[in-house]
Amino acid sequence: MLPLELPTCPPGVRAAFTSRAGGVSPAPYAELNLGPHVGDDPALVAENRSRVAAAIGLPVGRLVFAEQVHGVAVALVGGPVVAPPVADVLVTRVPRLALAVMVADCVPVLLADPVAGVVAVAHAGRRGVEAGVVGVALDAMVDCGAAAGDTTAWLGPAIGGCCYEVPEQLQRAVAAVAPGTVVGGGRTRSGSFALDLRDGVQTQLVARGVRRVVRSGGCTHDDADYFSHRRDGVTGRFAGLVWLTGER
Predict the structure, then answer these.
(1) What's the predicted TM-score (pTM) here?
(2) Domain coordinates of the chain in residue numbers?
(3) Per DSSP, what are the bridge partners of residue 17?
(4) CATH of 4-158+210-244 given 3.40.50.11810, 3.60.140.10, 3.40.50.20, 3.40.30.10
(5) Is 242 exposed, middle or buried (0-12, 13-18, 19+ CB in 10 A)?
(6) Helices then strands (H, E): number in the chain?
(7) Of all helices (H) and strands (E), which one includes residue 24?
(8) Whole-number Å distance between alpha carbons of 213 and 201
(9) Mind listing the pLDDT tens digit for each residue in 52-65?
(10) CB under 8 Å to 15, separation ≥6 — which residues?
(11) CA distance 228 to 104
């Protein structure tokens, strides 16, 4: 069975995070690379995605990936897609349709309002956090009938403030719009200026009224079980997924 991190979810919702284990891609994408845009063999990526679909009990056509561009564009998904939408936020009300967000240091954000029956994913890298992609995702969910107070957020493995080195000027610029990204002394383990994206995302979610924020996994740069662009350069992508089961 493919190893998945399966957070506790409210009734009617399921969420999962993949690791790099259980796939067919060779190094430097070994093993479960889900990104078709990083130089891996497309046929191997397709097989990896099929394995993820089987592990969560859905046909591979019910997985929806986006072409992520570090922006704030939203795609409302009404069913299986032929071509991935160009977006960093996906939202749906359709049961048994798993929305996926791919990362290799950025924060994979999964959101679900089981009361309204709305789920979403957001790709929250440094540029996305700075641009407010999490707030955009929540706004899109509210437009579909969701409420922030009924929404659960899951934040998957991402590079931590222990390892995410940035220039001082960039740290100040990001902190000016996302103050939660600078915690403690704002330094990495080695003493460089740092950003903590997951802390920044959590601060933004709480400020918007999301009461339940759950973290899964640790720092991708430290943990070789996950892909990390900062650590390895050429590498694969793991994913966070969220879907409605259609059962209440």
Answers:
(1) 0.97
(2) 4-158+210-244
(3) 5, 240
(4) 3.60.140.10
(5) buried
(6) 6, 11
(7) none
(8) 10
(9) 999 999 999 999 99
(10) 6, 7, 9, 110, 112, 154, 240, 241, 242, 243
(11) 5
